[in-house]
């Protein structure tokens, strides 16, 4: 049972074109707490019909919304951010209950969501056009920036609050309307945000949130001619499928897909800082982040020291239900996630890695996994090629800069990379040579509303956050006038 200060934040119906609605079919699906397996709520299980209603609502609302002045949209986003901050405790509890992460991380995610809303409230007012130098004295030329139109967003379960806000805030700031489909594991966070958007005064139809059948809803959103843009965060496999579905009407796309982040520690690094960074970026959200360090490359000269210090830090991690004080590692999202982690470890062991810590399920329950440290990882292992998405630190050894760059870039993914070095020359060279959309140098704290978040290669298209984030929801219109 979820006991909230404000019980009306626990919404279980979809929010379709300005109305809280049950599914047309009357169907519901169960949302469970991944730590305990307890049922949290029965949520309206919507499908294609409701997706179409939401699109129609967004289309009807568009004409009015795109004509509002930017200040008005900015004020609404600010009001929404204020409500998110006011209700941070309830929102964090909803998030932890359906997703599992420790409350302290949930609070940080909620506040980061508020920061994104505030950032795009500011950016809304800076969408300026251009006046061009004319090439003919009888003509004047200018460029307008216009909202793309009706948008759709499909979001994942690992950051259900911030992933939704990163898409919705720039869309609304730009003057677009939007239909959101959250992940089936974590719909309650998105519905609570919608409730606060209503309270902030968002006009009817501007935002809809529909939960339920992913394939059916996805198909309607992708194939609709009314929806002009899809923004998706999730697996590369699903992203590829959605991209194909969007191809026939040439829909604009933003895709934030999988990663396989290298985390490189050179001999000249501050080892304690590197261990601290590895602990954060490996174990935050139990390693279930697309920017999690997936491959820890450590240079031969400090390999043993690093492994030893990391092992000591990992031993101190407290595993348990996210709502309990002091817990740093909650459950994984479901038993399938546990099975994948287990498979990666078994494969690594068969190929010559040694388990120094963990390596199996944790006795807290069937979705809990012990923080695992593997040494002597190699590039033929599954965990070198795919995201493990779990609390497994696999440490690879390397000798030279060239060797580690070749290995780090040897992946179809290109989201985030991190490295630690105190040699300025190496810092420049390595930062430039890494084929990733984001590079952390002597830090892993790279994600915030001010910076462009996104990847290259099969990690996706487009950027979220920063001043570039809003351009994903804008079209350029060039106007050429004869005098
Ligand atoms: P994961 O495997 O981590 O759950 P997914 O990419 O499958 O990642 O899920 C991310 C989001 O994509 C979720 O909201 C999920 O419901 C949605 N999704 C999954 N498959 C489809 C699909 N075929 N069409 C539309 N959305 C989908």
What is this entry, summarized?
Helices cover 39% and strands 22% of the residues. It has helices at 48-67, 70-86, 88-99, 103-123, 160-174, 187-200, 214-223, 236-247, 271-283, 303-315, 335-350, 382-385, 401-409, 424-433, 466-469; strands at 14-16, 19-21, 28-32, 39-44, 130-132, 139-147, 150-154, 177-181, 207-209, 227-233, 252-256, 261-265, 293-299, 354-357, 372-375, 392-398, 413-414, 416-420, 438-441, 456-457, 460-461, 474-482.
Give an overview of the whole structure:
The structure is a single chain. The chain has 483 residues and is an alpha/beta fold. It is 39% helix and 22% strand. The strands form six sheets. Strands 14-15-16-13-12-18-19 form a seven-stranded mixed sheet, with helices on both faces. It has a six-stranded mixed sheet with strand order 9-8-7-10-11-21, sandwiched between helices. The radius of gyration is 23 Å and the shape is globular. The protein starts with 13 loop residues before the first strand and ends with a strand. The structure holds adenosine-5'-diphosphate. Adenosine-5'-diphosphate binds next to helix 7 and helix 8.
């Amino acid at each position: 049972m979820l006991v909230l200060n404000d019980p009306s934040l626990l919404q279980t119906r979809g929010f379709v074109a300005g109305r809280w609605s049950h599914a047309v079919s009357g169907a519901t699906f169960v949302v469970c707490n991944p730590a305990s397996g307890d049922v949290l709520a029965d949520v309206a299980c919507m499908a294609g019909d409701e997706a179409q209603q939401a699109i129609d609502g967004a289309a009807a609302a568009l004409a009015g919304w795109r004509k509002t002045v930017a200040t008005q949209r900015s004020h609404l986003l600010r009001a929404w951010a204020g409500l998110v901050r006011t209700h941070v405790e309830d929102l964090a509890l909803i998030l932890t209950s359906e997703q599992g992460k420790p409350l302290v991380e949930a609070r940080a995610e909620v506040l980061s969501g508020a920061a994104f809303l505030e950032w795009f409230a500011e950016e809304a007012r800076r969408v300026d056009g251009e006046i061009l130098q004319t090439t003919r004295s009888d003509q004047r030329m200018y460029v307008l920036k216009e909202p793309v139109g009706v948008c759709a967003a499909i979001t994942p379960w690992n950051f259900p609050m911030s992933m939704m806000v990163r898409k919705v805030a720039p869309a609304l700031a730009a003057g677009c309307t939007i239909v959101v489909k959250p992940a089936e594991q974590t719909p309650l966070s998105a519905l609570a945000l919608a409730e606060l958007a209503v309270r902030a005064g968002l006009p009817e139809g501007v935002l809809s949130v529909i939960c339920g059948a992913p394939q059916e809803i996805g198909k309607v959103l992708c194939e609709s001619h009314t929806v002009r843009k899809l923004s998706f965060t999730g697996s590369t496999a699903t992203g590829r499928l959605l991209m194909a579905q969007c191809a026939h009407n040439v829909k604009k796309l933003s895709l934030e897909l999988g990663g396989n982040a290298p985390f490189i520690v050179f001999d000249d690094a501050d080892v304690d800082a590197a261990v601290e960074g590895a602990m954060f970026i490996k174990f935050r959200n139990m390693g279930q982040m697309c920017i999690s360090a997936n491959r820890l490359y450590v240079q031969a000269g400090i390999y043993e020291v690093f492994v030893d210090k990391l092992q000591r830090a990992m031993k101190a991690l407290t595993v348990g239900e996210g709502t309990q004080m002091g817990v740093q590692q909650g459950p994984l999202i479901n038993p399938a996630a546990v099975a994948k982690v287990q498979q990666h470890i078994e494969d690594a062991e068969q190929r010559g890695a040694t388990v120094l810590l963990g390596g199996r399920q944790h006795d807290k329950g069937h979705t809990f996994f012990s923080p695992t440290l593997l040494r002597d990882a190699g590039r033929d292992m599954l965990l070198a090629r795919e995201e493990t998405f779990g609390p497994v630190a696999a440490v690879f050894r390397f000798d030279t800069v060239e060797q580690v760059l070749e290995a780090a870039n040897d992946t179809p993914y290109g989201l985030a990379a991190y490295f630690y070095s105190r040699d300025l020359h190496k810092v420049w060279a390595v930062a430039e040579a890494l084929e990733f959309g984001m590079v952390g140098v002597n830090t892993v704290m790279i994600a915030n509303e001010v910076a462009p978040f996104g990847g290259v290669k099969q990690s996706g298209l487009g950027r979220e956050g920063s001043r570039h984030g809003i351009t994903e929801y804008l079209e350029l219109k060039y106007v050429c006038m004869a005098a």
